[in-house]
Specification:
By secondary structure, the protein is an alpha+beta fold. The protein folds into two domains: about 130 residues, no CATH class; about 140 residues, no CATH class. It is built from seven helices and seven strands, in the order αββββαβββααααα. The N and C termini lie far apart (about 85 Å). The relative contact order is 0.11.
Length: about 280
């Protein structure tokens, strides 16, 4: 499927050339929804059309909305009706690899007030002074990273629930249970999170957009602080480190048990050989 299918009628390259600096100049409230839809989105499919903005990629979507797309599998929809969201995500599906059955999502309302203070409100909404392309991109950056963190936080939490009975078995019986191998598989899946977080999402990294718009750095820092991206990323790293140590411990115990079993096999073979030798020496004659 080409990228043209994701553009509604009337929104082609010629529209991108005439794109105003503000997406929603006459609106004071804008609905945004972030979703983590899969492991990767093939944004190269949009190379055939001129883009409204890049890093992150921003395209027109729906009748009067727009969407920010991220290679690591997140998409943020601005001012799109429910049916438009379903249609857009359906058209986007062929470009998504490793699709998630139940995507993590987060909804937020953007309030526009010229001359106001840009911040995250106590109600959870985000206040903006305008709806410039750059501000929408920064909001999309933060929301996308937030839903990715939420997805991996849930995944890591499930593994922690599996580790607890293993730890209890070690404390009571001094050995791992029969579910150790399955647990190791789950731990392996979770350890892939670290690779994805560091190599793809880059939660702790500032977006390239701030190099061209340094005046927006304070706004971005506020969003990062309010959504606790740094703290959540640090906590996730610590849990991943603990899971890695648990995997190492379980592997050591399994290896020790296997070595002990081999030693017993050797002892049994030696005993059998001695018995056969004695049998031939005293009985077989």
């Amino acid at each position: 499927m080409g990228c043209e299918a994701l553009f509604p009628a009337g929104y082609g390259p010629q529209y991108a050339d005439a794109m105003p600096e503000s997406f929603f100049p006459s609106q004071s409230r804008i609905q945004a929804r972030a979703l983590f839809v899969g492991e990767r989105i093939d944004v190269r499919a949009f190379e055939g059309a001129e883009r409204v903005a890049e890093s992150p990629l921003l395209v027109r979507a729906g009748s009067r909305g727009c969407a920010a797309l991220f290679r690591y599998g997140a998409v943020v929809l601005f001012e799109m009706q429910p049916l438009e969201q379903v249609s857009f995500l359906g058209q986007l599906a062929p470009l998504v690899s490793g699709a998630i059955a139940q995507p993590e999502s987060e909804d937020v309302e953007l309030t526009v007030s010229a001359g106001g203070d840009e911040r995250v409100d106590p109600s959870g909404g985000i206040s903006l002074t305008d709806t410039s392309v750059e501000r929408l991109q920064l909001v999309a950056e933060v929301l996308a990273k937030s839903v990715v963190l939420a997805h991996y936080e849930r995944q890591v939490a499930k593994v922690f629930d599996s580790i607890e009975p293993l730890a209890a078995g070690l404390r009571q019986a001094g050995r791992v249970g029969s579910q150790a191998r399955e647990l190791l598989r789950q731990i392996g899946d979770v350890l892939m999170v670290e690779h994805k977080m560091v190599g793809r999402v880059e939660v702790a990294e500032k977006p390239d957009l701030l190099w061209d718009h340094p005046l927006l750095e304070r706004f971005y820092a506020r969003l990062v602080d309010e959504y606790e991206l740094t703290e959540r990323h640090r906590a996730l790293d610590q849990k991943l480190e603990l899971i890695a140590r648990t995997a190492e411990t379980v592997l050591d115990l399994l290896q020790h048990r296997r070595s002990l079993r081999v030693e017993w096999y050797i002892v049994i073979l030696i005993v059998v050989e001695i018995f056969l030798s004695l049998y031939e020496l005293f009985i077989a004659r």
